[in-house]
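Q: I have 97 residues here and want to know how they pack in 3D. Can you give me a structure?
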Amino acid sequence: MDKSADLHPTAEQIRAATGISRRMFFNAVKVRRNGCPELVALVASGGASMNLALAVARFDIQSQRLILEAFKDMKPRARLGFVELLAAAHTGGDHGA
């Protein structure tokens, strides 16, 4: 049996060990892969929800850092709306209209 397989757990093994959903696991992977270190640290500390982090991680790294700086003067409940407005402005408005 290949012992190296034990050193690299699968996503399913990690999920089972931590008790998180498949969706939450892959959302965390996206934030870790696309987010700036400050965003990843904010999520790890409990300072931001996964939904908020996913929304921020859609921006480039420089924009993420500017958004996180703006968060310092915002109430937590206002943050997601702020990011959604930025995303709408960045993409040219509401595509559903």
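Q: Anything worth noting?
A: The mean pLDDT is 88. The chain is about 70% helix and 0% strand.
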